[in-house]
Amino acid sequence: MKNFLSVNDAGNIDHLVKTALNFKRNPLASQTLGKNKRIGLMFLNPSMRTRLSTQIAAQNLGMEAIVFNAGQDGWSLEFEEGAVMNGSTVEHVKDAAPILGKYFDVLGVRTFPSLKNKEADYSEKILEQFVKYAGIPVVSLESATLYPLQSLSDVITISERLPLQGKEKPKVVMTWSPHVKPLPQCVANSFSQWMNAWGAADFIIANPAGYNLNKEFTDAAIVTNDQAYALKDADFVYVKNWSSYHDYGKIIPVENNWMLTSEKLSVTNNAKVMHCLPVRRNIELSDEVLDSENSIVTEEAGNRVWAAQAVLNEILNALV
Ligand code: CP
After folding, report:
1. pLDDT per residue over 216-233, tens digit each?
2. What's the confidence (pLDDT) of residue 65?
3. Is residue 140 within 8 Å of 149, Cβ to Cβ?
4. 50 lines ligand 1 (CB under 6 A)
5. How confident is the model at residue 320, as a pLDDT?
6. CA 31–ligand 1 middle distance (angstroms)
7. SS (H, E, C) 158-201
């Protein structure tokens, strides 16, 4: 594995999941693999789970991890080619990224979308420039349109509970949920992309009219505006808000309440409920669901360590 930017870099997903679950059983199985290697974790946006789980994963592999909260502590970066930098940006990515390439063996980058310029966001302009100019393997810690580390953790979390008795494939539903702020589409795009590539689940997406995702990521999924229909007999329900892709970055008012409740869950096959976190309680997901035995959100976040460790393991093996 050279970079980890999307499911296209994952290789065999089941192999990656197996590696992750082996690390879950034995975290220090490859504790010298990353000896004398260093990963830089560059955050242009806030994080709790990704920052901590990736540090722990690197440490388990004997790697040193250095966090750089660039969005908060770093120079303001310029990403436009040919920019006349007479405004607020101080350093061009063309100058900064090669230096990170000298300091580190692997670079992790978190960068959110603008939600204003669809073309720029969907070209992954920022992440791609780090890949281009750093000259070392880059791991996406969440980018403008995708979030492969989260999706790998999600697939690990589902896989751990398989097979389900009497079912060849689980039914996995991703349902849109309300939010007070416009959020990126990246978690939903990525989960859909991984479900389609994995192929080991019957996958359906429920969202209100106006919230269909970019078809590029949902091509093999069933998409419906009927949440109750989607939830029927579901084994896993993945709850996530995203802002409109078509009316880019906007919150479009919806008629019904899309928040998942215990009553709505009653038509499922006692489904396990997932969410990438952080979650707005009683907006995105009700207390009663989050505090119930159906919720596996903590387990899912715990698996972030093993997802990151499996990915770094592949990258380190390709480095040596
Ligand atoms: N799920 C997730 O990315 O959490 P953080 O933003 O806390 O890293």
Report:
1. 999 889 999 999 999 999
2. 98
3. yes
4. yes
5. 65
6. 25
7. HHCCCCCCCCCCCEEEEEECCCCCCCCCHHHHHHHHHHHHHCCC
